[in-house]
């Protein structure tokens, strides 16, 4: 395909503030990981922005630069980490508590990690029932809490000499809520902030504050947050990119890899039983039915969208899909997931696939968090605003424009991501047609 019009991209000049509401397992594994990579102590394995290459032009041109050489991605050296948490622990103490990384590595990074001290959180216990934090802001209205967050952002950027910022929600999963009238447009939302409307969750106050400051916002958890007309309106008005929801890491990563294969080969599905054991704080929060419901909705939707039962009723019209997460403290962050998949083949003969993924939750999530932060900063510098569907690759429950269905298939998501990067760089899009290789 012909090169598309190359957008103008502002250079990744100066420092980038990477601000995370939530300084728990994922956030501190991200902070520590970047500090370790900067010091040459480890490799950024799992990060597309750091290790990924992209093919350009024809297959026989042998052009496959690193993605970060094709488009101007912020350098790790230019990132300054900051965050908020309901506990006052600095990033070193929090990472030690999370027990994801070995203490020996954390001790080598003690100085930079101790310097990252959480700002006071905006928190409401009715939204995360299992936590009882003390490091929490107080104000008579949600609007004032939002203004305090805006002041935090400005202060952090000034104190750290940052030119740009991105905000990435790495805090606990809030209870399930459906969009209601207060989320319908910006005027209703801002009135709701003033009136302390109970349907405005803390995550929405962070998102509002970020967008008001012109800061891109991405959501690593499944909470509703910016997936509402009101905050999308604000993102558009402010000319700021946003994306969510929920980092695509363990079981859903496997699911969105296997399900497209079944559909590609027209193999049927009778049922998919998924269960997990997880022993970290996230597991504890998800033990509450309200928070689990948010996660469950996020996890359940993927098969429907990939398999399209309406188009293929004989293959996918009646499958059972169950997802459970059990809080099991001995495993800490080392999540173990099992999938029992009942499929059917030629003439309806049944077969089974079993998956046992012994993963590490935050080891999978940290590079995804880094890529999201760096790509949404790239989007902002490229003048892209509103929902960034091309980043669906990183999300379990990707946001999408009204009237579209979300794209869950990992391979379509990857093609979309790569072609968007080619588009940004003014390179030809790759269609994989390839007939010209066989012309005389
Ligand atoms: N690890 C993964 O693979 C993965 C995948 C997808 C989504 N997620 C989501 O990412 C989020 C972070 O996961 P984690 O393992 O780091 O959890 P965690 O429990 O270790 O960390 C979350 C932190 O957020 C803090 N917090 C809660 N509410 C807050 C608020 N309103 N403001 C500021 N801080 C707040 C908590 O005190 C805690 O320190 C969770 O919502 C989780 O569901 C994680």
UniProtKB/TrEMBL annotation:
Molecular-function annotations in GO: inositol-3-phosphate synthase activity
Myo-inositol-1-phosphate synthase GAPDH-like domain boundaries: 250-362
Protein origin, superkingdom: Bacteria
One GO term of the biological process aspect: phospholipid biosynthetic process
Database matches in InterPro entries: Myo-inos-1-P_Synthase, Myo-inos-1-P_Synthase_GAPDH, NAD(P)-bd_dom_sf
Coiled-coil ranges per UniProt: none
Family: Belongs to the myo-inositol 1-phosphate synthase family.
UniProt xrefs under PANTHER family: MYO-INOSITOL-1 PHOSPHATE SYNTHASE
Protein name, per record: Myo-inositol-1-phosphate synthase
């Amino acid at each position: 395909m012909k090169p598309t019009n190359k957008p103008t991209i502002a250079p990744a000049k100066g420092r980038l503030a990477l601000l995370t509401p939530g300084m728990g397992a994922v956030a501190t594994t991200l902070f520590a990981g970047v500090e370790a990579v900067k010091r040459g102590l480890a490799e950024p394995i799992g990060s597309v922005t750091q290790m990924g290459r992209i093919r350009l032009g024809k297959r026989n041109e042998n052009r496959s630069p690193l993605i970060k050489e094709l488009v101007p991605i912020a350098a790790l050296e230019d990132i300054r980490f900051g965050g908020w948490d309901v506990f006052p622990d600095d990033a070193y103490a929090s990472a030690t508590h999370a027990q994801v990384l070995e203490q020996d590595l954390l001790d080598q990074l003690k100085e930079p990690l101790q310097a990252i001290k959480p700002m006071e959180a905006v928190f409401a216990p009715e939204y995360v029932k299992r936590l009882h934090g003390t490091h929490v802001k107080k104000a008579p209205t949600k609007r004032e809490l939002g203004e305090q967050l805006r002041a935090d952002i400005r202060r952090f950027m000034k104190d750290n000499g940052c030119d740009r910022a991105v905000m990435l929600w790495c805090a606990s999963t809030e209870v399930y809520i459906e969009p209601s009238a207060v989320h319908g447009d910006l005027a209703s939302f801002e009135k709701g902030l003033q009136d302390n409307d109970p349907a405005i969750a803390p995550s929405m106050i962070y998102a509002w504050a970020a967008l008001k400051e012109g800061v891109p916002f991405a959501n690593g958890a499944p909470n509703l947050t910016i997936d509402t007309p009101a905050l999308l309106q604000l993102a558009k008005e402010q000319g700021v990119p946003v994306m969510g929801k929920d980092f695509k890491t363990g079981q859903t990563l496997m699911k969105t890899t296997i399900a497209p294969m079944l559909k590609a080969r027209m193999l049927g599905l009778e049922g998919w039983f998924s269960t997990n054991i997880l022993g970290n704080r996230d597991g504890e929060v998800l033990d509450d039915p309200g928070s689990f419901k948010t996660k469950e909705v996020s996890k359940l939707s993927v098969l429907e969208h990939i398999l399209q039962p309406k188009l293929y009723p004989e293959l996918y019209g009646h499958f059972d899909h169950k997802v459970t997460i059990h809080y099991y403290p001995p495993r800490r962050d080392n999540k173990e997931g099992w999938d029992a998949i009942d499929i059917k083949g030629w003439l309806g003969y049944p077969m089974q696939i079993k998956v046992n993924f012994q993963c590490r939750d935050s080891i999978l999530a940290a590079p995804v968090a880094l890529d999201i932060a760096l790509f949404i900063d790239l989007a902002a510098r490229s003048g892209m605003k509103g929902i960034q569907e091309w980043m669906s690759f990183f999300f379990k429950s990707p946001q999408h424009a009204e009237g579209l269905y979300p794209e869950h298939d990992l391979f379509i998501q990857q093609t979309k991501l790569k072609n968007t990067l080619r588009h940004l760089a003014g390179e030809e899009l790759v269609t994989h047609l390839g007939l010209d290789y066989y012309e005389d």
